[in-house]
Each structure stands twice: as structure tokens, then as C-alpha cells.
Write a structure and sequence with these properties.
about 220 residues; alpha+beta; 2 domains; three-stranded antiparallel sheet; 8 strands; disordered C terminus
């Protein structure tokens, strides 16, 4: 399934009212109950009334700008690491500390793919500067250490990139394993005969059939 990252909508998710130029809009990238990834746009004044889905990957705030006449209102981008990074790191978007770990991870991924070029730290040494290879635009991302604790912290957000937890695998581990069924070969194979050779001097126990014959002969 191909995921898409839709552009800013025209209407508030809560009230249904159309946005007005310059209004502050909060966007949520979420996983809905159906499992699909979706974008919800909400007026900042209506955020308290917004019913969040069980899982929200990230949020960001922008000032609403009406689309130009030549723009396609239904335009949607593929939900790639690059498009998500550009959306969250947009200088026009309000900073959101909750997005910082995800941005740091995306920056690392895109740097390795040569999509971003590191340009060192900013003047106060608190942010890493990246240049987008295609557009030559620069983005400043808070510097941080990507250690084990970092990846544990953003594991839920990483589901967006890897497709979510493998529920079937988890369920399989939790269910008791059924007893192993014998194969057809094992079922039809003749049982191994015990070695009939016995060391000299060892008493050999008579078989059940032999015992009966001896008793009949005795009678």
C-alpha cells in the first residue's frame, strides 16, 4: 500500500468550517482505527475539542495560506522520509519539541542517502545545519545523541517507516505451540529391532509367544 502525505486541507476537522487566511492550524499525522495513515487539520482554537486517534506520529503548526489558482487542491505527496522531513522542518512551521527526535532520525537517514548535506553547527552550536541537495534550502535541526535510549524513545514513530509492529508474529509468540505431528514417513516406518545378539552367559528372557508354547507342551 502506498502512503500519501496530503497538503493542508481547506476545512477544520472539528468544526468543518473553512480556514481563513492567516489562521493558525495544527496538523496531526495519525494512524486511524482502520490502520491507515491520515492527516487531520484542526484550528488551533479547536484543538481541545479534537478527538485524537490512539496513535499520533507527529504534529506541527502553520499559518493557513489559501492555495493559488494554478495549484491542484487534491495534490498529495508520497509519504517518504524526505517529504515528511521537509514538512516538519519547514522554517515557516512552529517549532515542536515532540517532533525533534523524529526529525533527528529522518535527518540521519537522509544524510546517508545523500538527500541532505551536513553543513556543521549553527552560530550558537545548538543546531545541526543541513542543506537539501535538490532545492539548496537549509534546515536547522536541534543537535542530539542518537543512542539506544533515543531509539527506544521514538520506537512508535519509527513504525511509520517500517510499517508498524508485526502483529501476527507477536500473536504467534504468545500462543502455545501445538504438539508436533508425526510425519507420514515416521508413522509408517518400522520400529527398530533390538540387537538379537547377546553377550555369552547372559540370560535371554523368553518372548510372550514362546512362554505360551512351553506351557502347552508341559500340559
Amino acid at each position: 500500500m502506498e502512503l500519501t502525505l496530503h497538503s493542508l486541507g481547506k476545512n477544520c476537522r472539528v468544526t468543518g468550517r473553512e480556514f481563513v487566511e492567516g489562521e493558525r492550524v495544527i496538523s496531526f499525522l495519525v494512524r486511524e482505527e482502520s490502520g491507515e495513515i491520515a492527516r487531520h487539520d484542526v484550528l488551533a482554537t479547536e484543538v481541545e475539542r479534537y478527538e485524537r486517534p490512539a496513535f499520533v506520529f507527529c504534529t506541527w503548526a502553520v499559518a493557513y495560506k489559501a492555495k493559488r489558482a494554478e495549484e491542484n487542491p487534491d495534490r498529495a505527496m508520497k509519504l517518504t522520509a524526505e517529504n515528511l522531513f521537509v514538512t516538519l522542518a519547514d522554517p515557516l512551521a512552529e517549532p515542536n519539541d515532540e517532533n525533534t527526535p523524529l526529525l533527528q532520525f529522518l535527518a540521519l537517514m537522509l544524510e546517508r542517502k545523500k538527500v541532505l548535506k551536513p553543513r556543521g553547527l549553527n552560530a550558537d552550536k545548538t543546531k545541526q545545519v543541513y542543506e537539501h541537495a535538490k532545492t539548496r534550502l537549509t534546515y536547522e535541526i536541534p543537535a542530539g545523541v542518537l543512542d539506544e535510549a533515543f531509539f527506544v524513545k521514538i520506537q512508535g514513530q519509527l513504525d511509520l517507516r517500517v510499517g508498524g509492529p508485526k502483529k501476527k508474529a507477536a500473536e504467534a509468540k504468545s500462543e502455545p505451540q501445538a504438539p508436533t505431528q508425526p510425519t507420514a514417513e515416521a508413522a509408517t516406518a518400522e520400529p527398530k529391532k533390538e540387537d538379537e545378539t547377546k553377550p555369552e552367559g547372559e540370560n535371554v528372557e523368553p518372548q510372550a509367544g514362546e512362554a505360551v508354547e512351553k506351557q502347552e507342551g508341559a500340559s
